[in-house]
Fold this sequence. Notes:
Blueprint: H1 19-42, E1 45-49, E2 52-53, H2 59-68, H3 70-73, H4 79-89, E3 97-100, H5 101-106, H6 119-129, E4 145-150, H7 154-165, E5 173-180, H8 187-196, E6 208-211, E7 216-219, E8 222-228, E9 246-249, H9 257-265, E10 270-273, E11 282-283, E12 299-301, H10 305-321, E13 323-333, E14 359-361, H11 365-372, E15 380-387, E16 393-401, H12 407-419, E17 427-430, E18 447-450, E19 455-457, E20 460-467, H13 471-484, E21 491-492
Parallel strand pairs: 1-3, 3-21, 4-5, 4-9, 5-8, 9-10, 10-12, 11-12, 13-15, 17-18
Antiparallel strand pairs: 1-2, 6-7, 7-8, 13-16, 14-15, 16-20, 18-20, 19-20
Amino acid sequence: MKDLTQNPDLRQRDVPDDYFGDWKWREGVAELMVPIIGTLYRNGINIMMYGQSLVNLSPTAIMKAHRFVRQTEGNELSELETFPLLKRLTAFNLADSEIDLAELTLQCPFFESLRDSSEEEIDNYLLTTLIDIKDKESNRPQKPTDVVLYGFGRIGRLLARVLAEGTGPGNYYRLRAIVIRKGQGNDLLKRASLLRNDSVHGAFSGTIRVVPEEDLLIINGNPVKIIYANNPQEFNYSDYSIENPIVIDNTGVWRDKKSLGQHIAGGASRVILTAPGKDDIKNIVFGINHADINAEDTIISAASCTTNAIVPVLKIINDEYVIHHGHIESIHSYTNDQNLIDNYHKGDRRGRSAALNMVITTTGAAKAVVKALPELANKLTGNAIRVPTPNVSLAVLTLTVEKEVERDSLNEHLRNKAFHSNFREILGYVNNPELVSTDFYSSPFASIIDAQATIAERNQITLYCWYDNEYGYTKQVLHLAKKIMNINLPRLPMTIS
């Protein structure tokens, strides 16, 4: 059995006779994969690799996704193994779904001879594996759900990006409007520029056209109305032919039911708050307690980025080892609520320059855990340190559990959960001793286990969990939005609920 706890770069792998020739050959195959993946996606089929979409990736990025499989299987997949299966997918009439190409390939009973297999042999395997979606009518809605972003800050702009990039056939949801306070000067042009170019996440991969006379941004061909308002009471969504939208409030200004209810009064069907909610608003961490949402929950919270990062890991540890007590320390990138240079701030210590200081502050994440995992009530404490980095944070979980744990077995358990369970879309796992925070820019996971940093001695566990507090959290919000829109496409060959 391969040792999957060691650094992937130290593992034995097949060595080609001609490295460059092998690379160019596989690069050519990856180039052939791009249009197939795109065509399938426009027809409602999302091609994935261990839970991460291959849509809109470059040939080189597709090749990197194949190498990523080293983390799970001890060796990278070859494009020469996956391409024969991908190519034959276009030969069938398949219902809207998500197909994990890595799982599909590795589960193939003739995996070792895939490169040389006949189309008939491949087709027979696909017909057996994909029987549930072959020649089945897709449960595709006739009209997409309208989505409105209330606020256009860091999270709002990232949401606009991922919503525009993930429309698929266009029948499931559409971003229809963005509500903001009007600024001075060329407001719309400046907003478009901030959406187009981002100092942390890089350039937007799509296209943006500005139509100032109509207050429109055309994002990847989708007209998005810019509504200027100071509060939700100033307009009704129906005034803009937007019917029963899901409103994602990312301002952080309103956090209780009464104030967020203004969106409902203005015509929204559901409201998602991108901050911890007050009153009895349900704080939902997708992948953990999203099943708690019911039809009466018109206003829900997506909790905080830190809560989303730690709750999946705490759930996994508690289910297997039972947490007695623990402390959560969040080493968090600075945010816009801090001062760039020293100035008055109502919060303790936050008036000091964010760019020059580590700032001890509080976090409600440890208490918020209880709303998703009631079994951990009174078992956790938490604090935070704001540090002079613009993005990516680190949660350090120091836990006392009820049974003794070995480091290697703990890492193996976490690795299996990250790649072979319902957590694989939200939990990442890395095993490289050279990684630092910037390596996790734009990571889609809610949390990423750093296996090299894991400490386990008797019944004491310390885990280091990276998270992109902007992009990873944004993906969690999107997962949650899809949940309340009843977008639940079958995933094959392994179904994720």
